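Q&A log
Question type: sequence-to-structure
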Amino acid sequence: MTRVAIEGAMLRWARERAGRTRESLASKFAPLADWETGEARPTLKQLEAYAKAVHVPIGYLFLREPPEEIVPIPDFRTVADQPLRRASPDLLDTVYLCQQRQEWYRDDARQAGAQPLPFVGSLALGADVVRSAASIRTALGVDLEAQRRLPTWTDALRAFIEKADALGVLVMVSGVVGSNNRRALDPSEFRGFALADPVAPLVFINGADSKAAQMFTLAHELAHLWLGESALSDAQASEAPAQAVERWCNQVAAELLVPLAVFTAEQDTGADLQEELNRLARRFKVSTLVILRRMHDAGSLRGEAYWHAYNAELERLLELPGGSGGNFYLTLGARVSKRFARAVVSSTLEGRSSFTEAFRLLGFRKIDTFRQLSTSLGVAF
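Response status: OK
Response body:
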């Protein structure tokens, strides 16, 4: 049986890159320890299976040293204000997949005569936060009173996404890589990113995060689109990032969702803090962490009191259970953006794209799934 000459260090690098231990892979790759030390070599079939298990392009394993993998868009994620240099395979594959979808949609839209969207790049960094947020709110058609009447955060998020979709933004929300439910995304690694483009602006939101937190992420990434800049973020309302662009986007996002003038008029400074947090979070359909930040901005919660309340609330939220998956076809539409899904389905039914390409872009393999999706999107099959 032919064995493949592979550097053991590359096998170890691929495993560590995926965050896996030898023990976690032992049931499938019993000789892994010997492969890594060079005492044994895998067959090509074993190597292909290993590459799939650790989510690495098999060609990388034939290199003599690891490639330098850089996130292909500006990376503003930090820990203790220090840039993060390493990205997981899950994050990288998600960015690459969204770039592929964006490229397809851009070409399709241009063939249909689409013109550049005027809002992309219409604001400049440092522009007045209140006026900038008002400009975005007007373009989206966001109505704070209508948002107040929505029963849940899920309804509010769905309405917010629909506003962005109607304006021309591809909004993709998923908690997994593509459609692989075994590759869950980690909100502590990233919460979202924006891919700026004059014809095909795209926002990806980490769907593993809470619905209320996703509201802030969407607002933050939309601010990046209005700047005309792509970005990878771990946006949190409570933070004042060191980077000027992230700080400005945070401020605009908070003002977009919770206008300070409205908030100040609504807040009862004499009420119990937890009760007031919950009431205002329901009123504005944002996370209680955003409300805490607005209390800080309004001057009603400062210094140690603010950070004590923030840490206590963060700990409480981390203990809450997550939600359920919901209808597959509605979830699929959210994962790839309804605007994108409609474009792919229409292109395929009109014969401009093949079913093979559609399945690759949408992340499934069955014609019946395609038929059901087209029905759910209101596109005749």
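Response note: The first helix runs from residue 8 to 17.
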